[in-house]
Amino acid sequence: MKARVSTDWLSGCSGCHVAMVDLHEKLLGLVEEVDFVRVPVLMDEKDYPKADVGVVEGAVRSDHDRVALEKMRASVDKLIAFGSCAVYGGPSGLGWLHERDDVMAAVYDGGPTNAGGERPDADAPILEDSVVPIDEVVEVDAYLPGCPPHPYFIAAGLRAVLGVSDLQLTAMSVCADCDRKMLKNEGAELHRGEVTAEKDSLCFLSQGVVCLGSVSLNRCQAPCPHSGVACFGCAGPSVDLITEPHLDLRNLIGRRLNMLTGVSEEEVTRYFQEDAKTLYAYAVASPVIHGKPTVEIREWAGPKPAAQGGE
Amino acid sequence: MIEIAVDEKACVSCSLCAEICPTDVFVWDEDEGVPKINRPGECFGCLSCSEICPPHCITHEGVELAESHYHDPYALRLASRLAADVSGRFNVPSDEASQNQAAADLGVRLRSVAEVFKRTLGGSLPAVGTMAGRTLARHLPRYREPKGLDEALVLAKQQFSPAWEFETTRNGDDLTINVDRCFVRETCEREGQEIGSEMCVLFYNYLAGYLGRMGKVRLRLMDADRGAKCCYSVKIYEK
Ligand code: SF4
Ligand code: SF4
Ligand code: SF4
Ligand code: SF4
Ligand code: SF4
User: Fold this and answer.
1) Are residues B103 and B171 in the same domain?
2) Which structural domain range is residue B227 located in?
3) Most confidently modeled range among A17-31, A246-260, B106-120, B217-231
4) More confident residue, B229 or A213
5) Between chains, do A183 and B13 touch, taking CB under 8 Å as contact?
6) For the range B114-121, what are the long-range contacts, defined as Cβ-Cβ under 8 Å and sequence gap of 24 or more?
7) B78–A288: do the CB atoms touch at under 8 Å?
8) Is the pLDDT reported for residue A261 higher than 90?
């Protein structure tokens, strides 16, 4: 029996669809046969044919996104939130920090390529007041974060959803697949804003460089630290951070950095607050982050009052 | 007995587990750069080691968790549909009896906090409530700022239900709040406290502070009718 898979693309960058298309041949080996009945980047199917699994990329930003998502949900048995935008808002979710009118003004009135102030006409989808992850609109059966998700985990996730095998996705963080050693390095200083570090076998944190590996869910096998760049958490927060209201990126990284190097926790948490828009980028629009009583993400990352010379 | 397992393949050799364990369960293996479980019988399940562990590669079987009502159901649902090995990690009861027990426990704490505040702060009690409410307004989850008081009221109805259920009528700058169900009232009744005592003062000023900040106005409690059901008259001041 062919497993029928249907996909859709809401407010996302298409990266998730490209990752899926890339996977095509591996998918064939994965289940007997996968029958794609709807894939916006590959075929001209405008309807929502019945399918076993729906795979949705992107967050809900416009009235079109909402209607499309509801149609998709109604046409499938299981729905996968595919990629960090669908799961947490992802990069698309950054719009959550701003008022709709400010977003429109920034893009259509003041943008360098469109300073004429011309707005899209009535045929274009209308932006909703804010941008939300897809589970704010419909029930989601499985979440596959990543920006975009990694082939290994796409396969494991699809397998599980199709009932070919039990879910084999671990709750470990990116560090679990990282080859660097996290050794004590008393006296190392905090290097704000840096994403590379001198020694290539030593953990970034040991060298005073913020790496989000330990607070990010491993859905990627750690390609970034392996290529010399600190993890910036593109697959969203690790499971402990999701479930425990008192745990957060900044206090966990603060504690670990402090124990490894002696850098003060306050210095780290201050840095996270000041650079919140970068360091929290992938999940700002998710209830996981904005629902934490210890996190004031809007104040840290949102538009700064003009009086303070902010954005 | 608690069974501890370390996934050595995932371990990044930070030794933070050995450092943090209050009962020296681990001994550090210099050659392999991993912790070895040396005194498993000493583990009392504080989970400090698994919390600090960067790859999250330490697990414990047989730790009995206290009931934890503070978990957010949204977060637990997300986590369990995200990874295989999370369900069963929490002890979140959903039966009514334990919910009621939790509410009663919370009520006792609320009462003692209110009493201490009253004794130390006396007349500033309303101001403290208002300040706390304004602070809460920054923390309670919401997707976008309500445009004004009316939107803030609609949002608050969703956020506080079922602990606090109410209807409002607005007439110019007069607002009436008719309370159907109130957690504080139930606590007063359970604790044998008079309705309208310090707990009520704290809580309703707290709500006024919260609603005011969310609705970008200032709210002042003018009068309270604490009959069979409570009814508050509130004055709205535009900022
Ligand atoms: S998760 Fe990343 S790759 Fe996927 S749509 Fe969003 S921004 Fe693009
Ligand atoms: S913090 Fe970063 S560099 Fe260090 S072990 Fe984890 S992923 Fe690797
Ligand atoms: S290492 Fe971090 S930033 Fe890189 S792909 Fe993985 S989660 Fe994303
Ligand atoms: S749970 Fe607590 S007592 Fe047990 S090994 Fe970990 S840190 Fe030690
Ligand atoms: S805390 Fe985790 S990663 Fe660090 S040494 Fe212990 S088991 Fe290994």
Assistant:
1) yes
2) 97-238
3) A246-260
4) A213
5) yes
6) B114/B197, B114/B198, B114/B199, B114/B202, B115/B198, B117/B198, B117/B202, B118/B198
7) yes
8) yes
